[in-house]
Amino acid sequence: VIKELDRYCKRRGITSAVILGIIGSLEYIKFGLPPKDGSFGYSYDEYKGNVSILSGQGTLSTYKRKKFFHIHIVASDPLKPGYMIGGHVEEAVAWATVEIAIGELPYQLTRIKDKETGLTAVKTT
User: Could you tell me the pLDDT band of residue 116, with boundaries at 50, 70 and 90?
Assistant: First the structure.
């Protein structure tokens, strides 16, 4: 999903945007989990199985002159009523379809690294 979104933005010359909404279905998703203890580095949680995307949003910015997608998704498993997964998307593979509404911004969003947490934060230029 993110690779296709990246290709779309590259074709259109988009480097700064808000991901307004994401719906659809996935067969695989990998979430990145920042450390809770203030240390550096992410851990990862993967889910394999068909899920419905209930909500998704995020940003497209630049970090060290490269495109940087920051997207969060909430999804449910239709075979497990009440079961929800969600978080920061590292990778995702579409199952049937994924629809993404993207709004290009007239200014550039960039990211800077926070020395205390090791994470990046968005800023406008």
Answer: confident
